[in-house]
Design brief:
The protein has one domain. 75% of the residues lie in helices and 0% in strands. With 115 residues, it is mostly helical. It starts with a helix and ends with a helix.
Length: 115
Amino acid sequence: MRKNIEAKRQREKEVVALMIRLYCKKQHGGKRELCPECAELLAYAEMRSDKCPFMESKTFCSNCRVHCYQPMMREKIRQVMRFSGPRMMMYHPILAVRHVIESKREKRRLERDEH
């Protein structure tokens, strides 16, 4: 079970990294390296993922009932997600489709648990 949680944690970190890289490349003109602001956001997101006690039961941070990001970082990651999310289908279609399927599945599960 522990191995599955670590694999899930790693997948989440990889997806966030791809989204931040895409955002930085398109918004800040970053080529290979992230700009300092995006590098800080990525390090923060990875640290939050490493410390997440809900990794076993959640799919994505946006579906989590506990928002552990500091308000400023939360707003930055929202901007990244808003920008990169729709573009993921073009750059990483398999990840994008997997995300949509898992999000819908999680929303149905949460609705079921509330009733």
